[in-house]
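Milestone M4 deliverable, item 7.
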Amino acid sequence: MVPKVATDLLLSGAAAKQSSIQYHAEATWDHHTVLTNNIEYIVNDVKALMPIQ
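Output delivered:
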């Protein structure tokens, strides 16, 4: 689990960058469910940061 203070810090930084990150405090989520439920957004972010040349 990630400490709440760390999550709050990451969220405040993302919000400042106008990210689409959504914070849901649910005990049933872990790194695997976060990744699998957000893979489309992750791929799109990587594509935006690393366009094919």
